[in-house]
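Action item from last week, closing it out:
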Amino acid sequence: MHQMPDCGDPSQAPYPSSGAASQAQLKCRTARPTRGGGDARPELGASVRKPHADGFQVDDIATEVAELLSRGVVFETYDMPGFDAKTMIATFEANRSAWFKDTEGNLIGIVELLA
């Protein structure tokens, strides 16, 4: 599986104040779990968290999808141009992507940037 980059303190987002982000910053941005997640307990007065989306950049999406499928992950299917239902991967001009939901209904995307 793809290793998560070492992005340091999660409370310090690696967003540059101006200019383009570096490749390392983009990987940290996509690999960083969203802040504020966890157990929302309405009975204790906490707000209920609505599902959201996260994404991860990978080097070889076909290998990652195959590995996740072998572990029982169910990928989302879409009726759109570029989506291959056999591989569960959508191919676009600049990337290849696949999506699945975690146990709490959050949409997780994996993306391979094309050269």
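Closing note: The helical segments are 23-31, 61-70.
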